[in-house]
Amino acid sequence: MQETKSETNQVGRFGEYGGQYIPETLMSEIDRLTEAYDHYKDDPDFKAELKDLLINYANRPSLLYHAERMSADLGGAQIYFKREDLNHTGSHKINNVLGQVLLAKRMGKTRIIAETGAGQHGVATATVAALMGMECEIFMGKLDTERQALNVYRMELLGAKVHAISTGTGTLKDAVNAAMQEWTRRMDDTHYVIGSTMGPHPFPTMVRDFQSVISKEIKAQLLKETGKLPDAVVACVGGGSNAIGAFYHFINDPSVKLIGCEAAGKGIHTDKTAATLETGRIGIFHGMKSLFCQDDDGDIAPVYSISAGLDYPGIGPEHAALQASKRVQYVGITDDEAVDAFEYIAQTEGIVAAIESSHAVAYVRKLAPTMRKDQIIVCNLSGRGDKDVAAIARYRGVNIHD
Amino acid sequence: MTNLQAAFAGENTFVGFTVAGDPSVEKSVEYVVAMAQAGADVVELGIPFSDPVADGPVIQAADLRAFAADITTDKIFAMVAQIREQTDVPLVFLSYANKIFDYGYDKFYQRCEELNVSGTVIPDLPVEERDEIVPFATKHGVSVIPLVAPTSDKRIPKIVAGTTGFIYLVSSLGVTGVRDEVAHDLIQTVQQIKAVTDTPVVVGFGIHTAKQVQQMNQIADGAIVGSGIVKLIEKNPNDATEAIKAYVREMKGNVSVQN
User: Which region is the signal sequence (chain B) (predicted)?
Assistant: First the structure.
């Protein structure tokens, strides 16, 4: 019997995951982007300009805050929150957007497009486009424009054009499809700012690099305050950008447990879930080989979560590899657990965290009591929850006009 | 296995596209046979995908009609078996990478070989990732048809070297759909391809008139018409046979048909 062996291209791979599975029409542009990123990531002027913007515009470094009341209440590990919610525009998304838009400008682009789920990435993109005097168009699933109406208006206020996408499930996946199609039509003057560690190479690597400032700061801040490394770092996972940012500089510290919290929706044993790492299987979509929620015939399955930012049927390829190597543990958090945590952190610490980040807080509530008081958990608060207040009120049966 | 390359040896060669299972397996078989009878040189069968990122609204809607009829990859192979009882027209599949990957590369191409399906066009498989599929296709005598885009330029030699079947030249930027004008620098792109390979060059995306088909046959070796035929099915899902035949004859330059 003749053995057939296939050769997997090694460019942009994390184990068997990653790659560049996109239409030929975009490949020249992807090649140009790869070259530009390889050049500018080590360019002293580029680095200096990005650093200045991160400090003086985005409000970095973000605080590492010791949540003493919550630590005492849970009666176990000391809990620290990395306050990405205090960044300008209210989430970690600005770290990546500043990097990519600055790069796009160096490449001579004048127009920026982006997808958005909860609207956090769209708001960050519209903000930086305004700052840099660039044209901006945002693609957002129609369902998401309804559940995140406030962010739609924010983006428009910032001068962006928002396209509500009604094809497919009308959520993040469809917004990515529409943004990719738009990029295929017009790439000469346009850069597509992908908001997560997904898509074809170089995006998963580039977005991770721009977000890795989170773990770099955590490490320095915690060492300064406690002289120790954390025992665990916990972050929510949709496409995976805030999580990889929070994990990256700890990957080679084996004593640090890394835990990603994905959206289980109504539960991982129901069909109303977005827990890709627990329920998905290997496939090829949105430019990458990774894990995806699929039906029996290789079609992408509809997913569900209360959180528009985690409502995605795939996962960044580096996370798929980190799960395969067992370096990171991924757990599912249900809507109910996330909403409880949303209320708990508000009432215990006076912080209204995004419903996405509340998935991570929910796991901290389970983990902390199992640990000793001299141990440390760092939880990444990826965004603030103002945008979610109306939706959570509705979830609790309170009707308010937002 | 039918020699795909030979299909483009004649005059005014024409590839007709339809989505497998649109609007039902039974009708889809009938429409493919109709295309063959009316003179299509090759029929390209689209395998529906949940997220057809390279396709415009016309083909997306056709995918949805096929899904409404519960189409699956296995049913498509069964459908091809029925087509093969009626015609030997050269067939190629258009499929997104995940449908083939999830079915299993070896199993997929083995079924292609059994049913005399000569090639696969995979819009989200650039040359960078091609080597993970080509060995399986080659083992079963099936061509992996490369796509060349207006933006390919210096990538062309790498894309077309060593390919078999035909080369799918994308006429314009963006997604599939009907267009009134196709890009003018096609001639140059064809020359760049011909400098590297003798594999026939067939132009697709936006082509829908007999005049365009003739023009593409002068510039290159043939034309692919997709959305034009799918629109006829959209207009009259269960009774499009005569319209398809008339359209294909018109494209082949045999009859002039009034709209």
Answer: none
